[in-house]
Design goal:
By secondary structure, the chain is an alpha/beta fold. The longest helix is centred in the middle third of the chain and has 27 residues. Helices cover about 60% and strands about 5% of the residues. It has 22 helices and five strands. α12 runs antiparallel to α13, α12 crosses α22 and α13 packs across α18. The termini are far apart.
Length: about 400
Amino acid sequence: MKQVLFVDDEPMILEGLKRLLRPVRDRWEMHFESDAARALTRIEQHRYDVVVSDMRMPNFTGVDVLRHAKEHCPEAVRIGLSGHADAQLALEAARVTHQFLAKPCDAAQLIGAVDRIVRLQNRLNNEDLRRQVAGLSSLPSLPSLYLRITREAAAPSGSLESVGDIIGQDLAMTAKVLQLVNSAYFGLRTHVASARQAATILGLDAIRAIVLTVELFESFDADAEADDLERLRLHSVATGAIARRIAEHLGLDRRTADQALLGGMLHDVGKLIEISRIQRAYRLVQGLVQKAGVPETEAEQQLLGCTHAELGAYLLTLWGFPTPVVEAVLHHHRPGESPDREASALTAVHIANALDAHATGRAAPDLDERYLRRLGLPVQIEAWRAALDTEPKKDLAETDHG
C-alpha cells in the first residue's frame, strides 16, 4: 500500500481531502499533518511514497517540506499545491517539486497524477533507478548552449525570441521550461508546447532566473559524453521536427501535432538520465551494443532491468507532462504495446525516430509493422520518406525548432 503524506496548515483543507480521497483508501495509507514542523519530523522518521504539501504556510513553506522530503525520502513523488499564481514561488520550488497542482485540489486530478506515476514505477523494477530519477530536478544540457543562453539572457538587448529558439534546440532545457510554464502557477488556459512560446509568456527575467538558478544543466568533462550528448541533441531535435510533419501529413489536429513535436524532442530523454546519473551502466550498455551487436533496448533490459524509454516516461510522468507525450516516449520503440487504434503522437514519433536514424546512417530501429497495419498505414521507410516528399535532414534544416 502506498504511503501518502498531506501537509497543509488549514485543517479544513485536510478534512476536505480526507473526504475526497475515500475511494482510494484501499490503495493509499494516508497521513495528514497541519503543522509543517511536525511534518518535517514525520518525513525523517517514516518512508513515504508521495508527499503533497501546500506551498504557502507560516514558519516553514512547502518548499521547506518538499526539500526535506527530497533529502530523506529521495524516491518519493513530491507535489506542491497552491491557490496563488506566483511565478517566483514556482521558480524557488522547481528544484524540489515534481508537479504543481492548483487549489482547491480536484480529487480526480490528484488521484490520476499519482496513479500514472505508480503505473510507471511498477515498470521500473530497479529501485535504485527509481530513486535516481525521483531525485532529479533538472536534466543535463550542453555547456555550449548554457553559455549562449546566459549571454543572450544577460544582454541588455536580449531577445525573447532568440532565447526561446536557443532553448528549443536542447531537449533538457525545453523539458524543464515547459514543466514550469505549464504548471498551475502560471494559470494558463492553453497548453504551451514550444520553448519560444514559453519564453514569450515567462519573459526575459524569468528565463534568466531559470537558466541561472534552477540548474537546468550539468557540465560534462568527458569528451565521449559530450559527443554523445551532441548526437543525442541533434537526433532529438530532428525527430521532433519530423514527427510534427508526419502528424500534419496524417491529418491530426494541431494539438496532437504539437504533442508529436514534443514527444519527438523528448523521446530519448531517458538516455540523458543514463549519461548523467548512471554513467558506468551507460558505458556498459554502449559496450554491449558495439562489441556484441545487441540492440540498445535489449542491452538496457539486460543490464538495467528497464529501457531508456521507461526511464524517460517515468521522469516526464513525475514532471506532469501530458499523457500522449508520455505514451509517445514510453512506446516509441514498441508502439504495439499501446492500445492505439488510430494514429496519434506516438505514431508520428515512432516513424520519425526510424526516419532520422535511417537518414543519418545509424542503425535504424525497425518499424512495428503489425502496429502500422493495425492503423492502416505504410510500413516501409521509403514509403514515409516519399509521403513527406523531402529528406528528413533537409526538413530539419528548414524547420523552426522553437
